[in-house]
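#structure-requests
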Amino acid sequence: MESRRLGRTEHDSAVAILGGAAFWGSTPAEAEAGFAMALERGCNHLDIAPEYGAAETVVGPLIPAVRDNLFVACKTTRRNPDGVRAQLAESMTKLGVDQLDLYQAHGVISSADLDERAEAIETMLRAKAEGLTRFVGITGHDFGTPQAQLTALQRWDLDTIMFPIYPRLWADTQYRADAEALLAEAGRRDCGVMVIKAVARKPWGDRTPDHGTWYEPWSTPWAVERGVRFALSTPGVHAFCTPSDVDVLALALDAADGYEPLDDDARADAVAAMADNDVIFPIAEHAPIR
């Protein structure tokens, strides 16, 4: 699997980051099988969070044996400094590490949300200074995420960003402009850039979900491949997070293994093919309650 330098972190990251949300409802045996498969396929970066159901509990015991070869990234949605510190300690215990590689402010979706998370981010930066995490970043998943993350990079010296890119979003001229401005700033600051929702298709609507993702993902090899290729061929992107579904995970790894960039015409075709689909955002309207 291809790897890319994850910005100033200097981590040589496989282009497919193992998304821990896939193990939301997994048993220990299921988690062990999925985790082993991802590492065997070349993943060397785990992205996980307390909000991902049972993920920390079932994946944590698997980490110490491979710690030297795994970049471990975790997240927090907490706003209160004491709460951030407490959750950081809890996550480190569950994951069996004495230092995280990356700690991220999770799910910042607007400038107003960013303002409310200011103390939390400053607490995370202090944790970096203390050696509890090597790097600090920010993630988000909604229309306002690129603008909020651009402001965050201008306000704090963050190491990484994570935000959505999939073809339908590129048909939204405002989102694309905001995302490209964010990517440009991240490039100037040498930030690591990670993408989520690469294989998103559309909201579930009134249908009963049959995958673990809160949005309907593409689930055929050619469509998953198109989403992965689109994300990874976006200038400035270093890696994508695999989706929160163990079945689609295997397809995403296949696509990462065989990755070839899309040229401009193929990217335009991918956008046109999805232009009439409903967007999966805003998350507050389209994400079903688990």
